[in-house]
């Protein structure tokens, strides 16, 4: 393989070791690598409880993994269980990224998730050390020193290599640093046979590859890429590139989304059977999505509704849910949109128990004016519009729960209990 | 916080006690303890309620964070808490130092 035409930069992918659990350890004066700590979310819809993060020792001693359920965690007094504080983790993430900014220009820093960032060190690494490893070490020491947290660094010539170096090497390295170059792939990546270990390959893709006779990354590197692309589509070509460590993405070139849309989904705290209760939550979710869209001064011409059934509520034909979309006249009026959604729901729902609801608004356009409908009272339409805008203003100024529909107080409504959550989990105490 | 923020010690004490009240349910075979942690990385003092029950996992619930490392402020907050509850206070990461007002050892 001729790599001379491929990008040869220097990228760091840095993540925090068991981020939430580490933050909670530090807050309690414990060492993140020695404490046995489990961050458990007990939000309404996580059932008995869901492990959001487990410290390295908790993973090692008790085999607890993230997204374990409460009942899978042994009842052992050595395990310390703590509730999540999402706002605290967001603050810590911002502090960590502030440290990264001392090493790269703002334009070369790409936060990837709440505990991972990509740093394009191509232009700046020589300012800080003799070797990339030395620079990585320096960043690790600073974060440990200033925030008490341990970080893992993957180094590569492009972002994909850095990510693979992080996942496959750094996490098992006692210095917590891993490095890959194009030349390393045959030796370090091709022997991998558990394909799901590799970033971007899930168990479905792995099964598909296995069916094609591909059982290792080496096999993947030696298939005919055109045949693979024929079989799997665009992803086929990408997987082939992955096996050779090739990544031509330019992170600074932001690709605009083809079509933006607004959506929101919710896992319900229990199975919902009653039409009235389901429609109540549907309205609440719709309100939230519409508010977000209106905040950006947009209107929608297409509403979509997804309903996920409870396990026992599967339809006779084995469906696990339904998804329907409908074109409407462009509008940002909450009542109209909700009416469409409820109609859609009534048309297609036939009594199954519901556990999952999602609402989406797409085909967006700028809304600067009210399009009056010829067949309705114009005064009424103007009044509705003013009413919606007033509610928006009130919520902007005094918070999401400043005004709520009285129906949200009915049993089954989830809006009030979810208002304080961040990303679906406890945000932590206020005034901290 | 940052800067010289004035800390209302009584309000801090009250906040901690109101959060403590619903959590301290005084069950049998259950140890309750308030952890007071000096967190040098956050330049703040964290308060947690620690609950240990036989055959159960230990639990630690955040009560509040006082954004100061001034021991005099902390001493007054702690004094306020001790007036209202007899729970054990466990001081973490303070080293071997005395309270500035009473001159007793911090422990």
TrEMBL record, chain A:
Keywords: DNA replication, DNA-directed DNA polymerase, Mutator protein, Nucleotidyltransferase, Transferase. GO terms for molecular function: damaged DNA binding; DNA-directed DNA polymerase activity. It holds the Pfam family IMS. GO terms for cellular component: cytosol. Transmembrane segments: none annotated. Residues 11-202 form the UmuC domain. InterPro entries: DNA/RNA_pol_sf, DNA_pol_Y-fam_lit_finger_sf, DNA_pol_Y-fam_little_finger, DNA_polymerase-Y, Rev_trsase/Diguanyl_cyclase, UmuC. GO terms for biological process: DNA repair; DNA replication; error-prone translesion synthesis; SOS response. Belongs to the DNA polymerase type-Y family. This is ImpB/MucB/SamB family protein. It comes from Levilactobacillus brevis ATCC 14869 = DSM 20054.
């Amino acid at each position: 393989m001729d790599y001379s035409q491929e990008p040869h930069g220097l990228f760091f992918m840095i993540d925090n070791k068991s981020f939430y659990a580490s933050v909670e350890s530090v807050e309690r004066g414990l060492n993140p690598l020695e404490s046995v700590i489990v961050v458990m979310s007990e939000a309404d819809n996580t059932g008995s409880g869901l492990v959001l993060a487990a410290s390295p020792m908790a993973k090692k001693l008790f085999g607890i993994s993230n997204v374990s359920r409460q009942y899978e965690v042994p009842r052992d007094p050595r395990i310390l269980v703590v509730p999540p504080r999402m706002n605290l983790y967001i603050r810590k993430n911002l502090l960590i990224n502030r440290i990264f900014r001392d090493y790269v220009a703002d334009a070369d820093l790409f936060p990837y998730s709440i505990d991972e960032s990509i740093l394009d060190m191509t232009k700046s690494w020589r300012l800080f050390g003799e070797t990339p490893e030395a620079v990585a070490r320096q960043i690790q020491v600073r974060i440990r020193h200033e925030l008490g947290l341990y970080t893992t660094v993957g180094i590569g010539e492009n972002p994909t290599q850095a990510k693979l170096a992080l996942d496959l090497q750094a996490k098992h390295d006692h210095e917590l640093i891993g490095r890959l170059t194009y030349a390393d792939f045959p030796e370090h990546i091709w022997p991998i046979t558990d394909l799901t270990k590799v970033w971007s390959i899930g168990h479905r893709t792995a099964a598909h590859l296995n069916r094609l006779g591909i059982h290792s990354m080496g096999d993947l590197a030696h298939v005919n890429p055109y045949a693979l692309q024929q079989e799997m589509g665009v992803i086929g070509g990408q997987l082939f590139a992955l096996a050779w460590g090739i990544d031509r993405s330019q992170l600074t070139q932001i690709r605009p989304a083809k079509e933006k849309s607004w959506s929101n989904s919710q896992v319900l705290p229990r199975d919902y059977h009653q039409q009235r209760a389901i429609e109540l939550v549907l309205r609440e979710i719709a309100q939230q999505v519409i508010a977000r869209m209106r905040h950006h001064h947009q209107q929608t011409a297409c509403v979509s509704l997804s309903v996920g059934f409870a396990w026992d509520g599967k339809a006779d034909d084995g469906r696990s849910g339904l998804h329907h979309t409908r074109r409407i006249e462009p509008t940002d009026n909450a009542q109209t949109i909700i009416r469409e959604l409820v109609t859609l729901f009534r048309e297609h729902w036939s009594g199954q128990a519901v556990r999952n609801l999602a609402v989406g608004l797409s085909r967006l356009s700028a809304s600067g004016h009210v399009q009056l409908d010829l067949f309705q009272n114009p005064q009424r339409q103007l009044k509705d519009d003013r009413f919606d805008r007033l509610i928006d203003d009130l919520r902007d100024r005094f918070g999401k729960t400043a005004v709520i529909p009285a129906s949200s107080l009915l049993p089954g409504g989830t809006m009030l209990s979810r208002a304080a959550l961040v990303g679906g989990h406890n945000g932590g105490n206020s005034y901290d | 916080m940052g800067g010289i923020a004035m800390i209302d010690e009584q309000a801090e004490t009250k906040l901690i006690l109101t959060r403590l009240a619903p959590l301290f349910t005084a069950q049998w075979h259950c140890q309750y303890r308030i952890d007071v942690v000096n967190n040098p990385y956050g330049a703040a003092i964290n308060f947690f309620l620690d609950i240990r029950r036989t055959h159960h996992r230990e639990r630690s619930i955040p009560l509040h964070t006082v954004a100061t490392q001034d021991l005099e402020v902390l001493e007054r907050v702690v004094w306020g808490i001790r007036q209202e509850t007899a729970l054990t206070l466990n001081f973490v990461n303070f080293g071997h130092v005395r309270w500035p007002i009473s001159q007793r050892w911090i422990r």
